[in-house]
Each structure stands twice: as structure tokens, then as C-alpha cells.
Amino acid sequence: MRTGSPTHDPDTTTSLDGLPREPAAGAGRRGLRGRRTHRASRVQRRFARRLRARRWRAWRRVLVLVALVAAVAGGVWLMLFSSLTSVHDVSVEGVSVLSEDEVREQAAVPLDVSLATSDLDAVEARVEALAPVSSVEISRDWPDTVTIEVTEREALAVVEWEGAWRGVDGDGVLFRTYPERPEGLPLLDTSAATPAEALGEAATVVDYLPAELLARIESVEVGSIDAISLLLRDGTRINWGSADESAAKLEVLTLLMEQEGRIYDVTAPGRPTLTK
Predict the structure, then answer these.
(1) What pairing do the DSSP bridges indicate for beta strands 157-161 and 237-239?
(2) What ranges do the domains of the chain cover?
């Protein structure tokens, strides 16, 4: 009677007669050696990959450094030696008394030279030498333009000087000529001995006055920096003194002129006088 097939042990082999047989000792050693060889090969491959990655990182740093050096060298060449960044144009802004061509001629900016090495300080000094120029800013406008931005002086009064009408700014600089006396600018009554500081002080006084008072002024008498008087069209005289304490002087004068008078003196605003 068959009781069932014999069980099969995976750790045994079967002989030709069908009986189980233990594996040979050599076969076990060969299997162990194979597993060790496989693990060693896997470790070697992993090490080789890491070595290649390390070498690639080193080369990548070298390549990045070379690229940076090349970029810097190219930028230096472009800025200093390329015709693309040479000066081809001079732009002038902010002028009305002067013309743009007058400023360009005075600036004398060298063309077809590197914009990066252009001597902008020298250009600035030349433009500032023009009388109507109060201040100037010179800048590089890449890739090929020098920009000159001018702030011109503002005439606050006019003076008759050497047979011509000349505008005077707050620094006492005579900077422009008018073909005839301009309306709206008080006349400074001066002499050949009047210093520029006194002219500037008088112009500063004029600049502080309100429009309604300016409209009544015929001339401004300038004796010295501390002796400035306003002569009105109706013959009234206002002794102002210097430009110091102009706010207080104007406040006192406003109250004082509520009374009729021929001479108002606010030279010392704390002790004003009125002559009828």
C-alpha cells in the first residue's frame, strides 16, 4: 500500500538510486567563495563609481574656474579695447541759457576712446568753467555715451555792467547777457567797486521777497554786504541791511508798512524805524 511520496530536503541531493545524499563539502565552499567574490565585485564597482564622481567634481571646479576667468577676461577686453564700448556720443541735458553744442565744445570729450577710461573729472572741470553753469554731473551711459547733466544758474536780479544787462544769481555771479532789461528782475544799483559778495547778498535778499513786494521795486541799492536798500517805484525807501534775519525783517516790515512812511528801516528787526 502507497503511503505517499517521500519528502524532498532542499539541502540534500538525490543519487541515481533515488536515495537522498548530503551535498559534498567542496560544493559548499565553492558557493561561499562565489558569494564573497560577488560582494567584493560589488564593493569594487561602488568604489569605482565614487572615484569617478570625485574626479568629475574636481574637473567641474576646474571648468567653472576656467569659465569665470574667461568671462572676466572677455569683460575686460570688451570694456577697454572693443570699439563697441568706445565713446561715440555726448548727451547734454538741463540747458536753456547755454546750447547743447556750446556745452559739447567746452566739454571736449575725446571720441573713439574707451568709455571706461574716459577722464570724466577733467570733463566736469571744463564744463564748470562756463559762467552759466551752477553744477554739473558727468556719467557713463553704456555702451558708448557720456552724459552731461547741467544745472544752470538762476538770475535773481539784473545789473548794468559794461554797457550790457547782466543776470546775477545768488552767488553774485554775472552769468548771462540780455539784449534789453528783462521784466520781473529788480535792477541792482552798484558801482565798479561793489564786490561780488555784496551782489550775491543783494540777490539773496531779492530772492526772499514775496512777489507783491518785488513788483513794486524799481531798483536795489547795493552799498556793501550790510548796506542793501530797496527803492520802490513810488519813491519809498526800505533799508534792509544784509540777508541775515530776512524772515524777521519781512515780518516787521509788513506790520510797519501799515503806516504811511517815506523810509522804513528794518536793518535791526528788533528796533525798526519809520521816517515819514
Answers:
(1) unpaired
(2) 26-81, 84-152, 157-275
Predicted confidence (pLDDT) per residue in 5-48, tens digit = 444 444 444 444 455 555 555 555 555 566 666 666 776 777 67
| Residues 208-256: tens digit of each pLDDT | 999 999 999 999 999 999 999 999 999 999 999 999 999 999 999 999 9
Residue 176 · residue 204 · CB < 8 Å? no
Separation between Cα atoms, residue 19 and residue 40, nearest integer Å: 38
Q: Is 275 helix (H, G, I), strand (E, B) or coil?
A: strand
Q: Is 135 within 8 Å of 169 (Cβ atoms)?
A: no
- C-alpha closest to that of 8 among 25, 17, 19, 16: 19
Predicted pLDDT at 5: 47
Reported residue count of the chain is 276
What is the rounded distance in angstroms from the CA atom of residue 213 to the CA atom of residue 233?
Answer: 11
Picking from 271, 256, 251, 193, the residue whose alpha carbon sits closest to that of residue 225 is 193
Top-tier CATH class for 157-275: alpha beta
> How many Å apart are CA 171 and CA 134, to the nearest integer?
10
Domain 84-152 has CATH 2.60.120.10: no
